[in-house]
Amino acid sequence: MSSVSSATAPSQQAGRPPVSIVITNYNYGRYLRASIDSALAQIYPNVEVIAVDDGSTDGSREIIESYGARIVAILKANGGHGSALNAGFEASRGEIVMFLDADDELIPEAAAQVVEAWRPSVAKAQFQLEMIDERGNPIGARVPPFTGFIPNGDISDRIARFGEYPSSPSSGNAYARAALERLMPLDPATWFAAAEKPLVFLTPFFGDVVSICAPLGRYRIHEDNDSRLKGRHLEALHRRLSAVFFVPETICAVAKSKGIELDPEVLGSTSRRIKLRMASLRLDPKTHPIAGDTRAQLLLKGLRASIREPDLSLRVRASQIAWFTLMAVAPMAVVNRLAAPAR
After folding, report:
1. Number of domain units in the chain
2. Would you place residue 44 in the very low, low, confident or very high pLDDT band (cuts 50, 70, 90)?
3. Cα separation of 259 and 198, whole Å?
4. Which domain holds residue 22?
5. Which residues neighbour 183 within 8 Å (Cβ) at sequence distance 6 or greater?
6. Co-location of 202 and 260 in the same domain
7. Which of 111, 195, 252, 299 could anchor a disulfide with 82, C-beta 3.0 to 4.6 Å?
8. Burial 76-113 (b: 16+ CB within 10 A, else e)
9. 188 shares its domain with 302
10. Confidence band, pLDDT 50/70/90 cuts, at residue 87
Protein backbone atom coordinates (compact mmCIF):
# COMPACT_ATOMS: atom_id res chain seq x y z
CA MET A 1 0.00 0.00 0.00
CA SER A 2 1.09 3.55 -0.67
CA SER A 3 -0.28 7.00 -0.08
CA VAL A 4 0.18 9.98 -2.36
CA SER A 5 -0.31 13.64 -1.63
CA SER A 6 -0.46 16.09 -4.51
CA ALA A 7 1.26 19.37 -5.19
CA THR A 8 0.66 21.71 -8.09
CA ALA A 9 1.98 20.03 -11.25
CA PRO A 10 4.26 22.01 -13.56
CA SER A 11 2.55 23.49 -16.59
CA GLN A 12 3.66 23.73 -20.18
CA GLN A 13 5.08 27.21 -20.76
CA ALA A 14 6.57 28.56 -23.96
CA GLY A 15 10.28 27.82 -23.90
CA ARG A 16 10.04 26.43 -20.40
CA PRO A 17 9.48 22.67 -20.51
CA PRO A 18 8.24 21.26 -17.19
CA VAL A 19 10.90 19.51 -15.11
CA SER A 20 10.20 16.85 -12.49
CA ILE A 21 12.72 16.17 -9.73
CA VAL A 22 12.00 12.77 -8.19
CA ILE A 23 13.73 12.12 -4.86
CA THR A 24 13.93 8.46 -3.82
CA ASN A 25 14.53 7.69 -0.16
CA TYR A 26 15.04 4.70 2.08
CA ASN A 27 16.20 5.42 5.64
CA TYR A 28 18.25 8.48 4.66
CA GLY A 29 16.35 10.77 6.99
CA ARG A 30 19.51 12.48 8.19
CA TYR A 31 20.17 13.77 4.65
CA LEU A 32 16.63 13.93 3.29
CA ARG A 33 15.74 17.49 4.26
CA ALA A 34 18.86 18.89 2.58
CA SER A 35 18.00 16.94 -0.58
CA ILE A 36 14.37 18.12 -0.70
CA ASP A 37 15.37 21.71 0.11
CA SER A 38 17.87 21.68 -2.76
CA ALA A 39 15.14 20.56 -5.17
CA LEU A 40 12.73 23.22 -3.92
CA ALA A 41 15.43 25.90 -4.23
CA GLN A 42 15.68 25.60 -8.03
CA ILE A 43 15.65 28.97 -9.75
CA TYR A 44 13.97 27.42 -12.80
CA PRO A 45 10.30 28.39 -12.51
CA ASN A 46 8.64 25.25 -13.90
CA VAL A 47 9.64 22.46 -11.52
CA GLU A 48 7.70 19.90 -9.53
CA VAL A 49 9.33 18.02 -6.63
CA ILE A 50 8.28 14.45 -5.85
CA ALA A 51 9.57 12.60 -2.78
CA VAL A 52 9.16 8.81 -2.75
CA ASP A 53 9.70 7.04 0.55
CA ASP A 54 10.29 3.32 0.09
CA GLY A 55 9.13 2.05 3.48
CA SER A 56 11.62 3.87 5.72
CA THR A 57 11.66 3.20 9.45
CA ASP A 58 13.83 6.15 10.55
CA GLY A 59 11.43 9.07 10.62
CA SER A 60 11.84 9.96 6.95
CA ARG A 61 8.10 9.94 6.37
CA GLU A 62 7.53 12.64 8.97
CA ILE A 63 10.13 14.79 7.23
CA ILE A 64 8.42 14.35 3.86
CA GLU A 65 4.97 15.05 5.31
CA SER A 66 6.25 18.26 6.91
CA TYR A 67 6.54 19.86 3.45
CA GLY A 68 2.80 19.65 2.88
CA ALA A 69 1.60 20.76 -0.53
CA ARG A 70 5.03 22.08 -1.57
CA ILE A 71 5.92 18.60 -2.83
CA VAL A 72 4.21 15.46 -4.10
CA ALA A 73 4.68 12.87 -1.35
CA ILE A 74 4.54 9.15 -2.13
CA LEU A 75 4.70 6.92 0.93
CA LYS A 76 4.91 3.25 -0.05
CA ALA A 77 5.85 -0.15 1.33
CA ASN A 78 9.44 -1.21 0.82
CA GLY A 79 9.90 -2.58 -2.68
CA GLY A 80 13.42 -1.56 -3.62
CA HIS A 81 15.04 1.11 -5.74
CA GLY A 82 13.36 0.10 -9.00
CA SER A 83 9.90 0.20 -7.49
CA ALA A 84 10.59 3.64 -5.99
CA LEU A 85 11.73 4.99 -9.37
CA ASN A 86 8.62 3.51 -10.99
CA ALA A 87 6.33 5.17 -8.45
CA GLY A 88 8.02 8.55 -8.81
CA PHE A 89 8.01 8.44 -12.59
CA GLU A 90 4.36 7.44 -12.72
CA ALA A 91 3.44 10.43 -10.56
CA SER A 92 5.61 12.87 -12.50
CA ARG A 93 4.42 15.21 -15.25
CA GLY A 94 7.65 16.75 -16.50
CA GLU A 95 8.99 16.50 -20.03
CA ILE A 96 12.41 16.30 -18.36
CA VAL A 97 12.80 14.01 -15.34
CA MET A 98 15.66 14.06 -12.84
CA PHE A 99 16.08 11.30 -10.24
CA LEU A 100 17.80 12.60 -7.12
CA ASP A 101 19.09 10.20 -4.47
CA ALA A 102 18.02 11.33 -0.99
CA ASP A 103 21.62 11.63 0.22
CA ASP A 104 22.60 13.92 -2.68
CA GLU A 105 21.76 17.55 -3.47
CA LEU A 106 21.33 19.85 -6.45
CA ILE A 107 22.61 23.41 -6.74
CA PRO A 108 19.86 26.03 -7.35
CA GLU A 109 20.84 26.47 -11.02
CA ALA A 110 20.78 22.74 -11.90
CA ALA A 111 17.39 22.49 -13.63
CA ALA A 112 17.89 25.83 -15.41
CA GLN A 113 21.25 24.78 -16.82
CA VAL A 114 19.87 21.42 -17.94
CA VAL A 115 17.02 23.16 -19.80
CA GLU A 116 19.46 25.64 -21.35
CA ALA A 117 21.57 22.76 -22.72
CA TRP A 118 18.53 20.74 -23.85
CA ARG A 119 17.39 20.27 -27.45
CA PRO A 120 14.59 18.20 -29.00
CA SER A 121 16.86 15.26 -29.95
CA VAL A 122 18.22 14.75 -26.41
CA ALA A 123 17.42 11.57 -24.48
CA LYS A 124 19.74 12.26 -21.55
CA ALA A 125 21.68 15.20 -20.18
CA GLN A 126 24.38 14.51 -17.63
CA PHE A 127 26.41 16.80 -15.45
CA GLN A 128 29.20 16.62 -12.93
CA LEU A 129 28.65 16.23 -9.21
CA GLU A 130 30.93 17.65 -6.55
CA MET A 131 31.90 14.92 -4.11
CA ILE A 132 31.22 15.74 -0.46
CA ASP A 133 31.70 13.89 2.79
CA GLU A 134 29.04 12.88 5.29
CA ARG A 135 28.94 16.40 6.77
CA GLY A 136 28.67 18.09 3.39
CA ASN A 137 32.30 19.19 3.15
CA PRO A 138 33.85 19.10 -0.35
CA ILE A 139 36.30 16.26 -0.87
CA GLY A 140 38.04 18.04 -3.74
CA ALA A 141 36.91 15.87 -6.65
CA ARG A 142 34.18 15.79 -9.26
CA VAL A 143 32.43 12.81 -10.78
CA PRO A 144 32.70 12.09 -13.65
CA PRO A 145 36.00 13.94 -14.11
CA PHE A 146 35.41 14.50 -17.87
CA THR A 147 39.14 14.65 -18.50
CA GLY A 148 39.08 12.63 -21.72
CA PHE A 149 36.17 11.78 -23.97
CA ILE A 150 33.12 13.93 -23.18
CA PRO A 151 29.93 12.32 -24.50
CA ASN A 152 27.83 14.55 -26.72
CA GLY A 153 25.47 13.59 -29.50
CA ASP A 154 24.75 10.02 -30.64
CA ILE A 155 26.98 7.67 -28.61
CA SER A 156 24.99 4.45 -29.13
CA ASP A 157 27.64 2.96 -31.45
CA ARG A 158 30.37 3.60 -28.89
CA ILE A 159 28.39 1.80 -26.17
CA ALA A 160 27.70 -1.17 -28.44
CA ARG A 161 31.36 -1.42 -29.51
CA PHE A 162 33.10 -0.73 -26.22
CA GLY A 163 30.51 -1.40 -23.51
CA GLU A 164 30.93 1.89 -21.68
CA TYR A 165 30.95 5.67 -21.76
CA PRO A 166 31.86 8.31 -19.14
CA SER A 167 28.63 8.80 -17.19
CA SER A 168 27.45 10.46 -14.03
CA PRO A 169 26.00 8.72 -10.96
CA SER A 170 22.22 8.58 -10.68
CA SER A 171 21.75 12.12 -9.32
CA GLY A 172 23.76 13.67 -12.15
CA ASN A 173 21.34 12.80 -14.96
CA ALA A 174 18.24 14.31 -16.53
CA TYR A 175 16.11 12.24 -18.90
CA ALA A 176 13.62 12.95 -21.65
CA ARG A 177 10.26 11.60 -20.63
CA ALA A 178 9.92 9.95 -24.03
CA ALA A 179 13.15 8.00 -23.46
CA LEU A 180 12.10 6.86 -19.98
CA GLU A 181 8.77 5.68 -21.35
CA ARG A 182 10.73 3.24 -23.53
CA LEU A 183 12.34 1.64 -20.48
CA MET A 184 9.92 2.02 -17.58
CA PRO A 185 8.41 0.60 -15.51
CA LEU A 186 11.48 -1.34 -14.40
CA ASP A 187 11.18 -4.89 -13.14
CA PRO A 188 11.32 -4.33 -9.36
CA ALA A 189 12.63 -7.85 -8.64
CA THR A 190 15.63 -7.47 -10.95
CA TRP A 191 16.31 -3.85 -10.05
CA PHE A 192 15.81 -3.95 -6.30
CA ALA A 193 19.05 -1.97 -6.09
CA ALA A 194 21.13 0.08 -8.56
CA ALA A 195 18.01 0.66 -10.68
CA GLU A 196 19.57 3.67 -12.41
CA LYS A 197 21.84 1.36 -14.40
CA PRO A 198 19.48 0.48 -17.27
CA LEU A 199 18.44 4.15 -17.50
CA VAL A 200 22.01 5.46 -17.65
CA PHE A 201 23.18 2.74 -20.01
CA LEU A 202 20.24 2.43 -22.42
CA THR A 203 18.66 5.88 -22.78
CA PRO A 204 21.46 6.92 -25.20
CA PHE A 205 19.96 4.44 -27.68
CA PHE A 206 16.82 6.59 -27.83
CA GLY A 207 18.42 9.97 -28.53
CA ASP A 208 21.42 12.19 -28.03
CA VAL A 209 23.45 12.68 -24.88
CA VAL A 210 24.49 16.12 -23.66
CA SER A 211 27.30 16.48 -21.11
CA ILE A 212 27.54 19.59 -18.94
CA CYS A 213 31.08 20.09 -17.65
CA ALA A 214 30.10 21.82 -14.44
CA PRO A 215 29.14 20.54 -10.98
CA LEU A 216 25.36 21.02 -10.76
CA GLY A 217 24.97 18.85 -7.67
CA ARG A 218 26.67 17.25 -4.72
CA TYR A 219 27.40 13.53 -4.40
CA ARG A 220 27.67 12.45 -0.80
CA ILE A 221 30.12 9.72 0.21
CA HIS A 222 29.28 8.02 3.50
CA GLU A 223 29.37 4.63 5.19
CA ASP A 224 25.87 3.51 4.17
CA ASN A 225 25.50 4.54 0.55
CA ASP A 226 25.78 2.37 -2.54
CA SER A 227 28.98 4.14 -3.54
CA ARG A 228 30.64 1.69 -1.17
CA LEU A 229 30.04 -0.86 -3.91
CA LYS A 230 33.17 0.70 -5.39
CA GLY A 231 34.47 -1.25 -2.49
CA ARG A 232 36.97 -0.88 0.27
CA HIS A 233 36.34 -4.42 1.41
CA LEU A 234 36.47 -7.79 -0.25
CA GLU A 235 32.84 -8.51 0.62
CA ALA A 236 31.70 -5.36 -1.20
CA LEU A 237 33.87 -6.24 -4.19
CA HIS A 238 32.34 -9.72 -4.40
CA ARG A 239 28.85 -8.28 -4.03
CA ARG A 240 29.46 -5.96 -6.93
CA LEU A 241 30.65 -8.74 -9.22
CA SER A 242 27.92 -11.24 -8.37
CA ALA A 243 24.81 -9.07 -7.93
CA VAL A 244 22.37 -9.55 -10.79
CA PHE A 245 22.25 -5.83 -11.60
CA PHE A 246 26.00 -5.80 -12.28
CA VAL A 247 25.96 -8.86 -14.52
CA PRO A 248 26.30 -7.85 -18.21
CA GLU A 249 23.69 -10.39 -19.28
CA THR A 250 21.07 -8.52 -17.24
CA ILE A 251 21.54 -5.27 -19.13
CA CYS A 252 21.69 -7.16 -22.44
CA ALA A 253 18.38 -8.90 -21.66
CA VAL A 254 16.71 -5.57 -20.90
CA ALA A 255 18.20 -4.08 -24.08
CA LYS A 256 16.97 -6.98 -26.21
CA SER A 257 13.43 -6.57 -24.88
CA LYS A 258 13.59 -3.00 -26.21
CA GLY A 259 14.95 -3.98 -29.62
CA ILE A 260 18.61 -3.21 -28.83
CA GLU A 261 21.19 -5.92 -29.54
CA LEU A 262 24.22 -5.83 -27.25
CA ASP A 263 27.01 -8.34 -26.69
CA PRO A 264 27.44 -9.36 -23.03
CA GLU A 265 31.05 -10.27 -23.76
CA VAL A 266 31.73 -6.65 -24.76
CA LEU A 267 29.97 -5.26 -21.69
CA GLY A 268 31.83 -7.71 -19.46
CA SER A 269 35.25 -6.92 -20.93
CA THR A 270 35.70 -3.26 -20.07
CA SER A 271 38.95 -2.49 -18.29
CA ARG A 272 37.00 -1.33 -15.23
CA ARG A 273 35.16 -4.62 -14.86
CA ILE A 274 38.27 -6.71 -15.56
CA LYS A 275 40.11 -4.76 -12.86
CA LEU A 276 37.42 -5.68 -10.34
CA ARG A 277 37.60 -9.35 -11.37
CA MET A 278 41.39 -9.45 -11.17
CA ALA A 279 41.44 -7.77 -7.76
CA SER A 280 38.81 -10.17 -6.43
CA LEU A 281 40.59 -13.23 -7.78
CA ARG A 282 43.98 -12.26 -6.39
CA LEU A 283 42.70 -11.15 -2.99
CA ASP A 284 40.81 -14.36 -2.29
CA PRO A 285 40.52 -16.94 -5.11
CA LYS A 286 38.47 -19.29 -2.92
CA THR A 287 35.57 -16.85 -2.61
CA HIS A 288 35.88 -15.19 -6.03
CA PRO A 289 32.31 -15.23 -7.44
CA ILE A 290 33.05 -15.75 -11.15
CA ALA A 291 33.83 -19.38 -11.95
CA GLY A 292 36.53 -20.06 -14.50
CA ASP A 293 38.52 -16.87 -14.04
CA THR A 294 42.29 -17.31 -14.08
CA ARG A 295 45.11 -14.82 -13.72
CA ALA A 296 46.34 -15.49 -17.26
CA GLN A 297 42.87 -15.11 -18.73
CA LEU A 298 42.18 -11.86 -16.91
CA LEU A 299 45.64 -10.51 -17.76
CA LEU A 300 44.97 -11.08 -21.45
CA LYS A 301 41.51 -9.50 -21.20
CA GLY A 302 42.92 -6.54 -19.30
CA LEU A 303 45.68 -5.93 -21.84
CA ARG A 304 43.20 -6.15 -24.70
CA ALA A 305 40.83 -3.71 -22.99
CA SER A 306 43.65 -1.26 -22.29
CA ILE A 307 44.63 -1.30 -25.96
CA ARG A 308 41.10 -1.43 -27.41
CA GLU A 309 39.23 1.19 -25.38
CA PRO A 310 39.11 4.59 -27.07
CA ASP A 311 40.15 8.00 -25.81
CA LEU A 312 42.74 6.79 -23.30
CA SER A 313 45.99 8.74 -23.16
CA LEU A 314 49.25 6.87 -23.64
CA ARG A 315 49.98 7.42 -19.96
CA VAL A 316 46.70 5.83 -18.89
CA ARG A 317 47.15 2.90 -21.28
CA ALA A 318 50.68 2.27 -19.99
CA SER A 319 49.50 2.54 -16.38
CA GLN A 320 46.69 0.03 -16.94
CA ILE A 321 48.97 -2.42 -18.74
CA ALA A 322 51.44 -2.23 -15.85
CA TRP A 323 48.63 -2.69 -13.30
CA PHE A 324 47.23 -5.81 -14.96
CA THR A 325 50.70 -7.31 -15.40
CA LEU A 326 51.71 -6.76 -11.80
CA MET A 327 48.37 -7.97 -10.45
CA ALA A 328 48.81 -11.20 -12.39
CA VAL A 329 52.35 -12.02 -11.27
CA ALA A 330 53.32 -9.91 -8.24
CA PRO A 331 53.48 -11.25 -4.66
CA MET A 332 50.56 -10.54 -2.31
CA ALA A 333 52.30 -7.63 -0.60
CA VAL A 334 52.27 -5.79 -3.92
CA VAL A 335 48.80 -7.05 -4.86
CA ASN A 336 47.30 -5.68 -1.65
CA ARG A 337 48.64 -2.22 -2.44
CA LEU A 338 47.58 -2.32 -6.09
CA ALA A 339 44.12 -3.69 -5.34
CA ALA A 340 43.21 -0.90 -2.90
CA PRO A 341 41.63 1.39 -5.56
CA ALA A 342 39.66 -1.54 -7.01
CA ARG A 343 38.41 -2.62 -3.64
Report:
1. 2
2. very high
3. 14
4. 2-229
5. 198, 199, 202, 203, 254, 258
6. no
7. 195
8. beebbbbbbbbbbbebbbbbbbbbbbbbbbbbeebbbb
9. no
10. very high
